[in-house]
Amino acid sequence: MVSHLTAEQRPAKPPLAKVLFVSASAAMSGFLFGYDTAVINGAVPGIRGHFAIGDVAVGAIVSTALLGCAAGAMGAGRLAEQFGRRTVMRVAAILFLVSALGSMFPFSPWLLALWRVIGGTAIGVASVIGPLYIAEVSPPAYRGRLSSLQQLAIVVGIAVSQLVNYLIADAAGGGVRDTIAGLEAWQWMLGACAVPALVYFLLASTIPESPRYLVANGQDDQARAVFAELEGPDVDAEARVAEVRAALVADRKPRFTDLLDRRSLLPVVVWVGVGMAVFQQLVGINVVFYYSATLWQSVGADQADSLLRSFSTAVINIVGTFVAIALIDRIGRKALLLAGSVGMALALGAEAWAFSHLQRQGEHAFLPHDAGLTALVAAHVFVFFFALSWGVVLWVILGEMFPARLRAAAISLSTAFNWLANWLITVSFPSLSTWNLSLTYVGYALFAAISFFFVQFLVRETKGKTLEEV
After folding, report:
1. How far apart are CA 144 and CA 236, in angstroms?
2. C-alpha to C-alpha distance for 279 and 199, rounded to whole angstroms
3. Secondary structure E strands in 319-429
4. Which helix (H) or strand (E) covers residue 148, if one does?
5. For 78-126, how does the pLDDT look when each residue is reduced to its tens digit (9 = 90+)?
6. Distance (Å, whole) CA 227 – CA 242
7. Where do the structural domains in the chain lie, given as residue ranges?
8. Rounded CA separation 453/324 (Å)
9. The domain 16-207+254-458 is classified under which CATH number: 2.60.40.10, 1.20.1250.20, 1.10.260.40, 3.40.50.300?
10. CB within 8 A of 296, min separation 6: which ones?
11. What's the pTM?
């Protein structure tokens, strides 16, 4: 049968290869986000020994980067509106490069902390600009899966950093204080981030600007060309431009003052976004990626084994992310969040039980066989449920849930709170784990349980809707 539909009547068929390349290029921000946040995991023992510092100083070095993350996230939305998404991506790539090279050659622990703050600023910018850009260039039918590329890139970056850490330590002789070409292994670990930073800069220079940014800045011809490039030649580009212009509401740049609401200081939707961003961190996920090598060593594993365990959890993280990508546009965002909250709460409860059996003989700590096996399995189950739910869905839904006039500012604010919660968990874990490791995990389990009710009563489904419909 021959179709008699006109070009205007036929649904546009997006050129998926092109859209996938553009989205994956933007998601390199996520790869660097994951790599740079997790690489410190393997380097912590080397930093501690090299500078002869204690838990408080180590916690400060690890956590100060997260303050940079919060600052970068707060400023990224405004910069993206003023200078464009692509420009901000290139700036983030340069900051990643500078941080990596500086961290490779630190002369003091506090100088290392400074370089990590610069890297943290890049991570904060990347955590905003990636989801924002991908949400704005993705055809609605594929937006959930394409937006999931950001989280996939994050977890791949985490896994690659753990694998690179292990390979560098192995090449140096097995320890993070062993040397290669006159530099200790942990220095090479931190410096290796320069390579993906250069790749990100090159990719960010090849992709088109966001059509929504172009419309907001009166560049309608360029926006039509981008819509046709990314959504197919049959798309009604003029209608898409008009739709975006109507959704922008006002012909001025979004500002943080747009978020103010007389009744509740912020609109309810912004409070929900901030709450989701905070809950994602309060379950303690980044304890796994910042301290897992140190944690496993503290309960009896040797250095090489602890690095391999960290890598294995990173692999599980990737597997869970693929599950989320397969399901997010089928069963929706909310169902995944609810399932993740339940799974994480149970896994964290099991970890709390396992660590309640921690035993000490002098300065040596260890877990009995059953408790140790439970802790290892529960850690992997926890990461799996996080990856298939909150790890992916947060970044997807933040790019979808806010009105166009508020989107950039609201994403920036929510992401900044995400990093502040990350900082709170990161800086408190060394002291809390020394005080009572089991009760620390009980606290994370409680936050996971509370997140279930938060989602059930406050989060709305956004599956299958255009950004303007949302």
Report:
1. 22
2. 32
3. 359-361, 364-366
4. helix 143-172
5. 888 888 899 999 999 999 999 999 999 988 888 999 999 999 899 889 8
6. 12
7. 16-207+254-458
8. 21
9. 1.20.1250.20
10. 305, 306, 309, 310
11. 0.71
